[in-house]
Amino acid sequence: MKQTNPKKSTPPLSVSNLSMRYHHKPVLTDVSFEIPEGKTIAIVGPNGAGKSTLLKGIMGLEPIMDGEARFFGEPLTHKRLAIAYVPQREEIDWDFPINVFDVVLMGRHGQLKLWQRPSKIDKEIAQHALEDLGMWDYKDRQISELSGGQQQRVFLARALAQKARLYLMDEPFAGVDVSTEKTIIELFKTLKTQGKTIVCVHHDLNTVGEYFDWIIFINARLIAAGPVEQVLTKENLNKTYGGRLSLLNDLTETMYRTQLNKAHDGD
Amino acid sequence: MAGFELFPPPSLWDNLRLFWQFEDMNVLWVLMGSVLLGMSASVIGGFAFLRKRALIGDALAHAALPGVMMAFLLFQTRDPLIIFIGALCSSFIGFFLIDWLPKNTKIKADAALAITLSFFFAIGLMLLSFIQGMEVNNKSGLDKILFGQAAAMTEGDIKLLGYVTVFVLVTVVLFFQKFRLIAFNQAYARTLGIAVNRYELLLALLIVMSVVVGLQLVGVVLMAAVLLTPMAAARYWSNQLAHILIIAALLGALSALISTQISYLAPAMPTGPWMVVSLSVLFILSLLFAPQKGLIKQHLNYKRLRQKVAEENVLRTLYKLHEGHPFSHHHFTQADIQSFRNMPSSCLQNTLKQLCKKGLTECTTQGFTLTPEGIKKATQLTRRHRLWENYLNEQAALSPDQVHQQAERIEHILTDAQEAQLQQELSNSQQDPHGNQIPSSVPSSIQSPVHSKEGGGRN
User: Fold this and answer.
1) Which of A56, A80, A87 lies closest to B193 in CB terms?
2) B238 and chain A in contact, CB less than 8 A
């Protein structure tokens, strides 16, 4: 997927020939794209299209069958500190005994060695992150006492505290209130002026054109990727939401089941 | 190995006195050892508890049994270090099996745990009966590790116990931040570039070490409870993980103290069951009496809420009665109140008594009436009730018949700020959907009665 990058700098994220599976079922097949720096990018597709899986694969949280993801031209391990990941809220045990400030401080742990504790500077960074999201007043709250929108803000503050250049977010707008949604949009704008890149799994087609500069359409494979005005077309939407290519799906599954991908020479 | 038959069998009281005089230094050492074990097992078990892998300790303890027996068989010795290493090895084999099975077969995690646990325990028991049939020295006491026996511990055992538990506690303190991060959000920790696998292994090592070293004291069968019950109890006392772990450690220490003492006073008593029983008692006490989350406190909160609701309901009913009788007539009987509100007589009497005590109503020979203070409160409640009805009617498009029930509940929890917000958002804050006037937020000192079309029916 060629994209027009005026700066000609290395893209913050480039994915090439990425394939992932769950047991023998293919989830993503041969996904390749590059994204430009300093933009907001939505990953869009129907339920079960592999949007979250794509993010997890990119972040090394789930095994990749084939292909690779590069960050600023390097593998993930060389660029960890430049990338912040925001997991889905549902994946967390919100009963865990911890308060808001300590959760946000976790964002600083990538920089800390072994048993090192967060320093004064780390705490200031965490404070700024909370203030940016309007959550400083809640810093001593138990996370179980937060509303859905507040939980999401805490997660975003934690990602902010990482001081990254690329943000990967899994459904940050899912189940949040209107004011949180506005706060997140404001945050995106601020981050963009700082030249940061934001990639979001997004499910709301009504807002995708308004909130994002770029869209990556996915349904088990890459449908289209590019600037909103170019790719947000009826044709792409039909392809994305119109069901999968059953033959591609079935044959890939058979390939995994028979371990053909391993048996084939030259792999 | 010095025996502990120092206590002749006189009265229990004498024994207790002797015990606490520490005439035998060994008693002191065993006591300290068991306290340390109680603390370290509670703390490390706490992390397993938080990570919802509570049963892992149980499986690891059972998996240690064949290691103990094999070490004894191979080296024909009870040297604590050799036994410890043997137990450590077989426990770790069990750990990796539990980890490997779900990843590489169709067996799910819980089944893998149960299969491994019983398999290792069975082998351990077989080896134990084999050893007991053999003609070897110092085999007696090996069976004690099934249920634990503090009095059977040797000096070497206690020294090893001391080293290991202190090591466990120090490591947890050092790596607390990382352990907490991984327990809270493992995937996120990975994205930060933290070597999660290494910390997981360290955590597993600490659990295995605590379990293995605790076998002499608590026994294979009941080790899990010592790992988990303190944490389960401590969660009732605090919301801060650091505090919770400290409380868990104290509970573990306390139960170790109690059970070790009992094991000494009545040498036939195994330590493990006593430790678990005392821990469970501590858990039940926490469950009942914890200041915030305890059942009793929660019940009291509920009762207080019910009382508050009943009082506010009576105030509102009196307000409505006032509304319905604009002239002079300001005293109402219980029958008047009950005609407006379904309420058991006993409850009504109680509530009225409370309201009189608080100075919100007055009781005269003619009946009950609102004091100026009571009018203020009742006006506020009625205002909130009717504002909410309007809100539901205007913004949520509920019909006037539907809004009353909801407002009956919401009126008790609306705050001043929310009331102001309601007023702002409503286009009509003069009359409620039933046509009753909504009183202003600053009530005139004397009730200004209002004629309502429906005679103060449902509002």
Assistant:
1) A80
2) yes
pLDDT digits (tens, 9 = 90+) for B254-310: 999 888 888 777 767 788 888 899 999 999 999 999 988 899 999 999 999 999 999
pLDDT at A1: 44
Is A250 within a domain? yes
Give the chain B residue nearest A140 (alpha carbons): B240
Task: Give yes or no: residues B177 and B219 share one domain.
Answer: yes
Inform me whether the pLDDT recorded for B452 exceeds 50: no
Q: How far is residue B428 from each of residues B388, B416, B421, B458, measured CA to CA in Å?
A: 12, 18, 13, 19
Looking at residue A116, its pLDDT comes to: 77
Q: Is residue A7 part of a domain?
A: no
**Residue A80's closest CA among B189, B405, B186?**
B189
CA angle, residues A82, A88, A90, in degrees to nearest 5: 150
SS3 A215: strand
Distance CA B60, CA B54 (A): 11
Q: Flag if B194 and A109 touch (Cβ within 8 Å).
A: yes
Q: Is A115 on the interface with B (CB under 8 A)?
A: yes
Both B377 and B308 in one domain: the answer is yes
Q: Pick from B50, B189, B191: which is nearest to A96 by CB?
A: B50
Instruction: Give the structural domain span for A182.
Output: 13-263
Asked if residues B73 and B83 have their Cβ atoms less than 8 Å apart, the reply is no
Return d(Cα B7, Cα A96) in angstroms, integer. 48
How much is the average pLDDT of B382-402?
A: 86
Indicate the DSSP class of residue A74. B
The chain A residue lying nearest B52, using CA atoms, is: A93
CB atoms under 10 Å from CB of B416, counted, come to 10
pLDDT, tens digit, 9 for 90 and up, residues A169-199: 999 998 888 899 999 999 999 999 999 999 9
Say yes or no to pLDDT of B189 above 90: yes
ipTM above 0.90, yes or no: no
Is position B306 within any domain? yes
Q: Extract the residue ranges of chain A whose pLDDT is less than 50.
A: 1-7, 267
Identify whether the C-beta of residue B121 lies closer than 8 Å to the C-beta of residue B220. yes
Nearest to B190 among A61, A91, A97 (CB): A61
**Residue A63 counted as domain residue:** yes
Q: Examine residue B228 and state whether it is found in any structural domain, yes or no.
A: yes
Least confident of A15-19, B182-186, B453-457: B453-457
B121 shares a domain with B236:
yes
Higher per-residue pLDDT: B196 or B340: B196
As beta bridge partners, residue A40 has A198
* Cα radius of gyration rounded to whole Å, chain A: 19
